[in-house]
Design a protein that fits this description.
It contains seven helices and no strands.
Length: about 180
């Protein structure tokens, strides 16, 4: 349980860091090299990973601390979610102010893969944890847990890889090979 909570917390924070990166790239493109320099990227990544470590404090006898774990998870998920929501609100506002449709398309394609990962991650977590207790069943819980812990993380590399045009071209050649 501890391992799951630490990695889940780190993923929430990493998604927030990634949305901040997209925010700077789209809303402040001229400042991007200054703001997102290699040192800052390393600091943000390290703080996201280390941010998950205090969750170990909540790991002990789970039966006694189940409510505290739920509260901690809500806080840990809520803060990055609000940061992601704020970033994408500003990103969408900036994109809509771009003068050309080509600019809209390019800007949306820049952040679409990360937005899809955010929706998969927070969407599956919301379905898992915010369902009414009356609709819980062992089979459904297992299926949702499988989706949340295995399927969603498996999609991440696929989603980000498909942004690479060389990979897409190779897949098209492989798929349409006669």
């Amino acid at each position: 349980m501890c391992f799951f909570l630490v990695l889940g917390t780190a993923e929430c924070f990493l998604l927030a860091v990634m949305s901040y990166d997209r925010y700077v790239a789209i809303c402040k493109p001229l400042h991007y090299p200054l703001v997102m320099n290699p040192k800052k990227c390393h600091q943000l990544a390290a703080s996201a990973w280390l941010g998950g470590m205090p969750v170990q404090l909540a790991c002990g006898d789970i039966s006694l601390q189940e409510m505290s774990i739920y509260v901690l998870v809500m806080l840990v998920a809520l803060v990055p979610f609000v940061m992601i929501l704020a970033s994408y609100t500003k990103i969408i506002g900036t994109i809509l102010r771009l003068p050309t449709a080509q600019g809209h398309t390019k800007a949306f394609s820049t952040c679409s893969s990360q937005l899809l990962v955010v929706v998969l991650f927070f969407g599956s977590a919301s379905i898992t944890y915010f369902r009414p207790t009356s609709s819980h069943s062992a089979g459904t819980d297992k299926l949702l847990s499988l989706f949340y812990t295995i399927v969603t993380p498996m999609f991440n590399p696929v989603i980000y890889t498909l942004r690479n045009q060389d990979v897409v071209a190779a897949l098209r050649r492989l798929w349409f090979k006669t």
